[in-house]
Amino acid sequence: MQPEPSVSPPASSQAADAPDTQPDAQAARKRAHKQRVDDNKLAKRLMRETGRAIADFNMIEDGDKVMVCLSGGKDSYSMLDILLTHQARAPIKFDIVAVNLDQKQPGFPDHILPEYLKDLGIPFHIETQDTYSVVTRVIPEGKTMCSLCSRMRRGILYRVADELGATKIALGHHRDDILATFFLNLFYGGRMKAMPPKLMSDDGKHIVIRPLAYVMEKDLIAYAALKQFPIIPCNLCGSQENLKRQEVGRMIAEWDKKMPGRSWNVFGALSRVVPTHLMDTGLFDFAGLKPTGTMDENGDTAFDTDDFAEPLFADPNTPIDAQDQAPDSPRHKTVFMTDLRGLPS
To answer: Quick one: pLDDT at residue 328?
Structure first.
């Protein structure tokens, strides 16, 4: 007895059995396209903001040898990646050498950074110094280790910069680090002081730069995920959860959620200081102030036009043509390192 031949259901019946296949595929393609667009915008934004900071503060000059301090965290990985891109595109010539300080923290995977840097094919130096034992021996358990650790690390990096012939030392501090430092000094130190994008080292021998000064931390988090950097967690200061800096960081993050623009306003204020309307006699000669008989735009009339209804500085995610265009706004000028040739000397 012959078996009955199998009969395939009509095509219309097959399509009916899986009605959601095509819409799901279309939705997946749309999501993938949107993700590519967002990733491209993120990369362009980081290049724009770092290029603008480098130009604004003349961080990198022709012939520089930039020592990029690489910790294994998202910020320094991103800084190195972005500076390498600027190096390839910039109209000036500068060298990059990556430096990592292995502080001999227990469990530190000391193979990750050398392997990563070898794959990049760039010059690098690993400096091994057991600062971990010193810090944990000197600082009582439960106390903040950051201050001593930072001082020791800074001294070692200055020495290494001398040995390598570096003309600039690049650190991975970002906009939120600068804001947090300002608030820490304001709330706990009783002074108006932040973390400058460019400064001279304590010994007067080095210039320290922070190319990520205009970059928000959330962008660096997204960029590190996009690039899949081999992140190495810090088990020393990073494990102390109740630091004042983290309290301030949470405050800034809450502002960004509830009151967009406020943190950018504070950040912008750091470059719009009016000494005549503060109280520092070292910045302005209040004791010697005399009437001149001429109109002064910084006199009492300066208070007549204040309007705080809207934030002055826009979030960098806002399209350029929709951002505030005040001439002295830190969001106003967009400069890439490729534009440096046309800048006035």
So the answer is: 42
Q: Measured in whole angstroms, how far is the alpha carbon of residue 79 from the centre of its chain? A: 8
Element (H, E) at 52: helix 21-56
Pair 103, 257: CB distance under 8 Å: no
Q: Which residue has the tokens 């006035």?
A: 344
Per-residue pLDDT tens over the stretch 33-54: 888 888 999 999 999 999 999 9
Confidence bin at 202 (pLDDT 50/70/90): confident
CA distance 265 to 248: 16
Give the DSSP letter string of 147-206: HHHHHHHHHHHHHHHHHHT-SEEE----HHHHHHHHHHIIIIISS-----SEEE-TTSS-
For the chain, the maximum distance between any two Cα atoms, rounded to a whole number of angstroms, is 120
* The residue to which tokens 């480098």 are assigned: 54
CA distance 172 to 230: 16
Q: What is the C-alpha to C-alpha distance for residues 218 and 176, in angstroms, rounded to an integer?
A: 9
State pLDDT tens for residues 269-294.
Answer: 999 998 888 999 999 999 999 988 88
